[in-house]
Amino acid sequence: MKFLHTSDWHLGRSFHRVNLLGAQAAFVDHLVEAVREHGVDAVLVAGDVYDRAVPPLPAVELYDRALHRLADLGVPTVMISGNHDSARRLGVGAGLIGRAGIHLRTDPAGCADPVVLADAHGDVALYGLPYLEPALVKDEFAAEKVSHEAVLGAAMDRVRADLAGRPEGTRSVVLAHAFVTGGQASDSERDIAVGGVEAVPASVFDGVDYAALGHLHGCQTINERVRYSGSPLAYSFSEADHRKTMWLVELGPAGEITAERLDTPVPRPLARLRGRLEDLLDDPALSGREDSWIEAVLTDPVRPQDPMARLTARFPHTLSLAFEPEGREEDDAASYAQRLRGRSDQEIAEDFVAHVRVGAAADDAERAVLRGAFDEVRVRAASFEDGRQESTR
């Protein structure tokens, strides 16, 4: 039996204020075509269908079109809610939608109620575990602790108990949305901790043939039977080196797994550039980056004039600009308040100028401009206070 494993669509999300709805629609087109081309028996969507609990209307319309197109293919789809989704909203009409072959699993209480499919080798039970917020589902699962490991472990105990009561040889697949130990995070994941307490061991999925995971945006293999599909699009520059894919998974007659990565459409490549502005503008090695979305970090000792305008003249799709002057030394020992104690407004402003220019202090003309500005503020403040006092007499 062949499965197409995907997750983290984040419909409605933008990329540094760039609307991605068109790119997300192109992904849905690609998904539908991949189902046809590869003879897929079921589609698995492991959570974060939407980017937020109350998604914008265009995102809902795209989701609606996607469901209709998947239903028209006659290929079952199993979809769980992620931490970005509103489980109750996503699950509205689940019973009716299920009649069309779109199986929404958003209620934690139903985690041991599988979608059962069959092929020439017998039954395959597909269990959907929606994102489990520990504080909200602790009582449902009678978990000993309020932790992701405790509630997910309790949910998997229910899955294994249900599986044990099914005919011998029944194969099994679990969809889950969580951070599993060994996974590599990126900047675009939110709301699940990526270290220590909130991570769950891969062993929590022992006893099933395949665990189709969502949440982490990089496609990765935790082990042969536990995999993240990753997001179909990049949602942060930390994903610049990601290869965005879906997993085409084949489940053999004895539960053996083979998996192949299918590339998803890239709306525009990402590039992270670092260096002095003039070097970036003149570097011939960057000649292939003009069509990329750009994150630039400038290291000029002195902040250059009109950096964004000059960057976009060569790299018209520059979306992010930051400054990290070379040679800067940070004093981490003293707090900001401690460093300012006992200094005048004028001194603080002059220190700021020297800080952003890495030791190049304000000259006489600049000090005069700063002094004049502070004097003007004091005059206006005094005039305001005098007028306020006069009005109260």
Automatic annotation (TrEMBL):
<dbReference type="Pfam" id="PF12320">
    <property type="entry name" value="SbcD_C"/>
</dbReference>
<protein>
    <recommendedName>
        <fullName>Nuclease SbcCD subunit D</fullName>
    </recommendedName>
</protein>
<dbReference type="InterPro" id="IPR041796">
    <property type="entry name" value="Mre11_N"/>
</dbReference>
<dbReference type="InterPro" id="IPR029052">
    <property type="entry name" value="Metallo-depent_PP-like"/>
</dbReference>
<keyword id="KW-0235">DNA replication</keyword>
<comment type="similarity">
    <text>Belongs to the SbcD family.</text>
</comment>
<comment type="function">
    <text>SbcCD cleaves DNA hairpin structures. These structures can inhibit DNA replication and are intermediates in certain DNA recombination reactions. The complex acts as a 3'-&gt;5' double strand exonuclease that can open hairpins. It also has a 5' single-strand endonuclease activity.</text>
</comment>
<feature type="domain" description="Calcineurin-like phosphoesterase">
    <location>
        <begin position="1"/>
        <end position="218"/>
    </location>
</feature>
<comment type="subunit">
    <text>Heterodimer of SbcC and SbcD.</text>
</comment>
<dbReference type="InterPro" id="IPR026843">
    <property type="entry name" value="SbcD_C"/>
</dbReference>
<keyword id="KW-0269">Exonuclease</keyword>
<dbReference type="GO" id="GO:0004527">
    <property type="term" value="F:exonuclease activity"/>
</dbReference>
<keyword id="KW-0378">Hydrolase</keyword>
<keyword id="KW-0540">Nuclease</keyword>
<dbReference type="InterPro" id="IPR004843">
    <property type="entry name" value="Calcineurin-like_PHP"/>
</dbReference>
<feature type="domain" description="Nuclease SbcCD subunit D C-terminal">
    <location>
        <begin position="267"/>
        <end position="355"/>
    </location>
</feature>
<dbReference type="InterPro" id="IPR004593">
    <property type="entry name" value="SbcD"/>
</dbReference>
<dbReference type="InterPro" id="IPR050535">
    <property type="entry name" value="DNA_Repair-Maintenance_Comp"/>
</dbReference>
<dbReference type="Pfam" id="PF00149">
    <property type="entry name" value="Metallophos"/>
</dbReference>
<keyword id="KW-0233">DNA recombination</keyword>
<keyword id="KW-0255">Endonuclease</keyword>
